[in-house]
Amino acid sequence: MRSGGRTWRFVEIPRWGFLAALVYAPWAFGSTSPSGADFLARALLALFGSWLVANLLDWRLPRVHPVPLLLIALLLAQGWTMTFNARAAFDTDFNRFFPLTHNEALPASMDQKLSHARMLLVTGLLGAFCLASDLVQERKWQSLLAATIGLGGTTLILYGFILRLLDIHMILWRSDIPGNTWPFATYLYHGNAGAYINLVWPVAAAFAVLAFQRHAHIVPKALWVSAAAISAAGIFVNASKASTAIGSVLLLIVVCWAVYVLLRTRRTSKPLVGVLYTAIIGGALLAVAWSVGWDVSAERWSHLNAELAANNSRLVVDRVCLAMLYDAGRWGFGPGAFAAVFPFYTLNLGNGVAGFWLYAHDDYLQTVIEWGSAGAALWGFLFFGGILAALVPPFGRELHAAVDFPLQIASIQLYVVTFLGVAWGSRSWNAESSR
Q1: Exposure string for 162-182, b = 16+ CB within 10 A, e = fewer
Q2: Measured between alpha carbons, how far is 63 from 91 in angstroms, rounded to an integer?
Q3: What is the pLDDT of residues 193-207, one digit of tens each?
Q4: What does the DSSP assignment read for 80-135?
Q5: Each residue of 378-404: pLDDT tens digit?
Q6: C-alpha span between 417 and 129 (Å, rounded)
């Protein structure tokens, strides 16, 4: 079909829906709500299904690299086999597992209900991976995707600044904030907010640098410089120590890259212009962070020495998780089953691990516990293989996942698989001389 002088395709409908999901997800699914994750899972499954149908209607094959496709097929096969062949169902009323009939020869989950909910989300996320990988094969959609992430993220961070300035301690409609967390924007837990900030601000910063490199109009220059300053200032305003440390290192790398790019672009005329532009952006960043206030972050950093004690609850949990790895074996306890299994390994610790631990605060350990060595290897190939494929390593997200649980939050998971889809999809760009 043709519309306005160009060919219109059915596949553009789910693509626009995918961009809308990237904008909507951080606003609606910043917390750990199971119902929110379930809604996002079903929305992504609907998008993925409509994308497959649209490809059939357009008589085209999806452009997804065969290696991640194989890894995705194996992960889904393992996860759904463990779900439908579950060993037990955990009853929260009686706080015990009730055994189910299952095949001992096949991988089996320890909790059917939790694994089923997790696999719905995993399937939707892997579908989003395929959609993102196919979408970035076209220059128009590359720009739209990046702009959506950069501007959408900046808008959310700006909302967090407004709440901080107005001293409002709530998340949209939720005001029952736990005392051991410092919410930011729509994220209940400050560590998750920090992980999200470190995912989106480099995109806005890259657009700011490229706007000057390409001698863009004053409007996009002002837009992206403002977006870069606002989003990067979130590194220092948010209360997460890990995200601040990681974001600061990333900021130094981006600044060095920006100086190099701008100096190289303008070396024949005014070599100091690049340095001046970078200084202006950096000054704007500090001005935004100072005006909003980083008193909460400074207070949290002052308690760092006390938190490094040997009896720190996270270190105790890490030791428990290491003990769980042996029993997890090749196939693990099942996707999403960590919360149900973990309490049975802490009975001898007394008050050493207080409260209910939904996540391990170490995504790598939790992945091996839930998916076993075989499943964790598949996730590792998909995750780190995409980074190597793009040769643009987002080290911040990797490091943060070792001390918190950003990869357990639905909205952050969506952004991660989107970046991975882009990374794997970028392998085909080298084949086109025009790029």
Answers
A1: ebbeeeeeebeeeeeeeeeeb
A2: 43
A3: 888 999 999 999 889
A4: HHHHHT-SEEEETTTTEEEE----TTS---S-HHHHHHHHHHHHHHHHHHHHHHHH
A5: 999 998 887 776 654 344 545 555 556
A6: 5
Cα–Cα distance measured from residue 359 to residue 405, given in angstroms and rounded to the nearest whole number: 7
What pLDDT, on the 0 to 100 scale, is given for residue 382?
92
- Taking the C-alpha atoms of residue 427 and residue 162, their distance in angstroms, rounded to an integer, is 40
What's the burial of 297, exposed, middle or buried (CB within 10 Å: 0-12/13-18/19+)? Answer: buried
What gap in Å lies between CA 40 and CA 409, rounded to an integer?
11
Phi and psi (nearest 5°) for 272? -85, -5
Q: What share of the chain has pLDDT > 70, as a percent?
A: 76
28-32, 67-71, 320-324: range with lowest mean pLDDT: 28-32
- Tokens 């899972």 appear where? 41
65: left (phi over 0), alpha (psi -120 to 50) or beta: beta
DSSP assignment of 381-415: HHHHHHHHHHT---HHHHHHTTTS-GGGSHHHHHH
H or E segment to which residue 4 belongs: none
Question: What's the confidence (pLDDT) of residue 399?
Answer: 56
Residues 391, 423: Cα–Cα separation, whole Å: 8
Contact status, residue 362 vs residue 318, Cβ threshold 8 Å: yes
Mean pLDDT of the chain: 81
Q: pLDDT grade, residue 117 (50/70/90)?
A: very high
Tokens of 277: 């532009």
pLDDT tens-digit series, residues 330-347: 999 999 999 889 988 887
pLDDT on residue 352: 66
Assigned token pair, 301: 């950093």
Tokens matching residue 193:
């907010």
Residues 6+ away with beta carbon under 8 Å from 391: none
* DSSP class per residue in 139-192: HHHHHHHHHHHHHHHHHHHHHHHHHHHTT--SBTTB----TT---BTTBSSHHH
The residues, ordered by sequence, that sit 6+ positions from 280 with a Cβ below 8 Å of its Cβ are 225
DSSP conformation letters of 198-238: HHHHHHHHHHHHHHHHTT--HHHHHHHHHHHHHHHHHHHHS
Report the amino acid identity of residue 35.
S
Neighbours of 379 (CB within 10 A): 19
CA distance 21 to 3: 25
